[in-house]
Design brief:
18% of the residues lie in helices and 20% in strands. Helix 2 packs parallel to helix 3. The chain has a 3-stranded parallel beta sheet, covered by helices on one side. Strands 10-11-12 form a 3-stranded parallel beta sheet, with no helix packed on it. A two-stranded antiparallel ribbon has the order 1-2. Strand 11, helix 4 and strand 12 form a beta-alpha-beta unit. It starts with 9 loop residues before the first helix and ends in a 24-residue tail after the last strand. With 242 residues, it is an alpha/beta fold. The relative contact order is 0.10. Pfam families: Peptidase_S8 (PF00082). Keywords: Signal.
Length: 242
């Protein structure tokens, strides 16, 4: 869309984190009903500059957006993107942030959501305020019922679901959940797959989504609060219950 409109949703997400008034009764399909508000400035005004397009991520577009923000006299420039594997002296964000700093602008950038190591940064430019994601004090509870056994677990699947007459399947090869071919042939034609924590949770979720499974029980995993993508019936249970 050849306008400043956001077609992906990321810019709306980051904008409402920065600015936005109180909204009562906000839920995610019934989870976590409460009042939402901006984390930074309730009554701030947002000027959005679109610098990412279907054609790709170009330094010239980014620099043009930063220049325009400085020219418009914004107070804070917030950036939730980055250029991978570029030296600091060639990074468009670093160069533009230096120019913005000379004009008295505060530049804030996201630290990024990827590792691989604890404490690693997507953007670690000394000229900007690097902001890490926070966590919330919510526990999104799902209930797993297996016959007479009931387990409270973590889930964000937004509906009730039931599967009858299917076996529980745990197999060291299959339960890594790193292949879309989870149920290739007999002796496992169908069933409820239990994934263990030998592969990154996010990658397991993405792999399972691409497979032809209808139901997956995700067990033996360490909960990470930033993972909210849960497109199929399933739960994350602790090691003791597993």
């Amino acid at each position: 869309m050849n306008s400043a409109r956001d077609t992906f949703g990321h810019s709306r997400h980051t904008s409402t984190t920065a600015a936005g008034n109180y909204v009562e009764g906000v839920t995610y399909f019934g989870y976590a009903s409460r009042t939402a508000r901006a984390a930074v400035a309730l009554h701030a005004r947002v000027a959005m500059y679109k610098v990412l397009w279907k054609e790709g991520e170009n330094a010239s577009d980014f620099l043009a957006g930063m220049d325009q923000g400085v020219a418009d006299g914004v107070d804070v420039i917030s950036i939730s993107m980055g250029f991978d594997d570029i030296p600091l002296y060639e990074d468009p964000i670093a160069m533009a942030s230096f120019c913005a700093m000379e004009k008295g602008e505060l530049v804030s950038c996201s630290a990024g959501n990827d590792g691989p190591r604890l404490g690693s940064l997507h953007i670690g430019i000394p000229l900007v305020l690097t902001v890490a994601a926070g966590s919330i004090d919510c526990w999104f509870v799902g209930t797993l019922t297996l016959g007479k056994l009931t387990i409270s677990a973590w889930s964000m699947f937004p509906a009730r679901a039931g599967v009858a007459n299917e076996r529980l399947i745990y197999n060291k090869t299959i339960s890594v959940c790193n292949s879309t071919q989870l149920l290739p042939t007999d002796p496992y034609p169908s069933g409820i797959i239990m994934c263990d924590n030998t592969w990154p949770f996010r990658k397991q979720i993405a792999t399972i989504v691409k497979s032809d499974l209808l139901w997956v029980s995700s067990s033996l995993m360490t909960l990470k609060s930033e993972y909210k993508f849960f497109p199929f019936p399933g739960v994350v249970i602790n090691s003791k219950d597993a």
